[in-house]
Design brief:
Number of strands: 17
Largest sheet: 8 strands, parallel
Number of helices: 12
Helix content: 10-25%
Structural class: alpha/beta
Distance between the termini: 28 Å
Strand content: 25-35%
């Protein structure tokens, strides 16, 4: 089939409207400053650590006591050093999981490290170490609480906001606040005061993104690293309904493995057909959360399930490389350290991420295309064996590209299609099998108004 390079966004646009009021409505949706900044550091780590680490569970029972937290010491320097080696930009700590045990000496409950055999404030130890090593810090605070007696009553909203206030005022700058939608099937029926929770975050940490059951970052919909073929950031506003997110979250401890298989809500969340049918739109990028081992908390039984550096890199490419952020869970052991198998995999992942862009052939910052830019050529100074192509849109101008092709040129001057893609967004990573070529051609086939490509890079 002929490549037909002249049939592109400038004259055909796959038969779709290039400009007009409806297209303008789509591209008027752009990230907030806090969302944009997070897109520039799209890989970070979860740390699940707490009562479940000591008891060997994934979810608590609601009957634990502070004495059940038998861990006496931790090594946060080792935690953050190991995570930093992976290339991650930050950490989100489970300050309080569903069991209700608090990793800081909260004033509002006796169910905390202060009343256990542990000496110190774990949230402070980890947040201080993040700042010392140059990583950002975020908090996870479970809305569902098995232990707190006021749960299920209006008084719980006060309790939750008081604890949220402690975490947002005593530990420096917070990059992300993670609200889990999980709730036990037998939990008391209770509607959280999300609006009030968000107001507390916005007032105390205006630069923090509120994730999952929140308006800034969308859960991709599964815990297995699966993403959609086209992962849009401009989507209908109803997707940010926290109660709907909670409904689709985990409701039993044993359903964790099932969550890895879900393909997440609908495949198409942001095509023109979807957007046209919805009056209210928002910028709501997806986050991919995956654990480095089976389960979210450490267990001796799961040591053999630690993912290899290769598997982690594949997850990185499939998330960061498909317009998502990547949240990799790394749970410390009951000895207070990151297990040696995780340390090895994290180091290997960091090496692979660096290797990906270690040998650039051409990196260009293109900007906004004009009517002359139906396709753009790139000529190399000699024959190359390409391994990766990385494209990035300037998402400050919204997400515009809907279809593109990349062709590689051989030494005879002939073009062969290397990839046919849909959306680009903040980052699109294309892996090649050492493709031999002397040049390349980017053809944008479909766009919402003029494409704006901030960067394209070809790497050996």
């Amino acid at each position: 089939m002929a490549a037909n390079f002249d049939k592109n966004w400038t004259n055909y646009n796959n038969g779709c409207e290039l400009n007009g009021p409806e297209v303008e409505r789509y591209i008027s949706v752009v990230p907030s400053p806090r969302q944009y900044l997070l897109s520039q550091t799209p890989f970070y780590c979860f740390i699940h650590f707490g009562m479940n680490t000591a008891t060997g569970r994934e979810w608590g029972s609601g009957t634990e006591t502070p004495e059940d937290f038998t861990i006496k010491s931790i090594k946060p320097t080792q935690w953050i050093r190991s995570i930093k080696a992976s290339g991650a930009a930050g950490v989100i700590l489970t300050c309080k999981h569903h069991d209700g045990f608090c990793l800081w000496p909260t004033k509002y409950s006796n169910f905390s490290v202060k009343y256990s055999g542990f000496t110190g404030d774990i949230v402070r130890m980890v947040s201080d170490e993040c700042r010392e090593q140059g990583l950002f810090f975020g908090i996870y605070l479970s809305p569902w609480d098995m232990h707190e007696k006021s749960y299920g009553t209006p008084a719980y909203n006060d309790y939750f906001c008081n604890q949220l206030t402690e975490l947002l005022t005593n530990y420096g700058g917070i990059k992300e606040v993670w609200f889990d939608g999980a709730k036990g099937a037998n939990a008391r029926d209770f509607t959280y005061d999300w609006k009030r929770y968000y107001e507390v975050v916005r007032e105390l940490q205006p630069n923090a993104n509120i994730a999952i059951c929140g308006p800034d970052i969308r859960w991709v919909g599964n815990e297995g690293g699966k993403t959609r073929k086209s992962e849009f950031s401009v989507v209908p506003s109803y997707l940010a309904d926290s109660e709907k997110v909670s409904k689709n979250s985990q409701h039993t401890e044993k359903s964790s493995s099932k969550m890895k298989r879900l393909t997440s809500l609908d495949e198409d969340l942001g095509s023109r057909a979807v957007l046209k049918a919805n009056d209210e739109l928002c910028w709501y990028p997806a986050e991919v959360d995956v654990s480095i081992r089976k389960g979210w908390f450490w267990s001796k039984k799961s040591n053999f399930t630690v993912k290899s550096a290769k598997k982690l890199f594949d997850l990185y490419v499939n998330s960061v490389g498909k317009n998502c952020t990547f949240l990799l869970n790394v749970p410390p052991t009951n000895k207070g350290v990151i297990h040696r198998r995780e340390v090895k995999s994290l180091k290997g992942l960091g090496k692979k991420i660096k290797q990906m862009t270690a040998f650039p052939v051409i990196v260009e910052h293109l900007g906004e295309f004009t009517q002359k830019d139906g396709y753009i050529d790139f000529d190399f100074d000699s024959e190359k064996l390409l391994k990766y192509i990385i494209l990035k849109e300037d998402i400050r101008k919204s997400q515009r590209v809907e279809a593109f092709d990349i062709y590689l040129k051989n030494e005879l001057g002939k073009y062969k299609k290397a990839v046919s893609g849909t959306v680009i967004g903040s980052c699109r990573i294309i892996k090649l099998k050492k493709a031999k070529c002397i040049g390349a051609r980017l053809v944008v086939r479909q766009s919402r108004s003029n494409p704006v490509i901030s960067e394209i890079g070809f790497y050996e």
